[in-house]
Design goal:
single chain; about 55 residues
Amino acid sequence: MTRAANLLFTGTGAWSTYGTVSFSLPLNAGSNTVRVAYDSAQGSANYLNLDRIEVK
């Protein structure tokens, strides 16, 4: 499993205002599983409203 370092999803101040976070990770040829996880042991706090994941 390859992990991204703790990513910072900054607050936008309103539910109607969206933000973007970009990062790169190597993927295997074929199928991959992408997971976004809240991990308080890793310092996660607050909430995340995730509307879309785009893989390029």
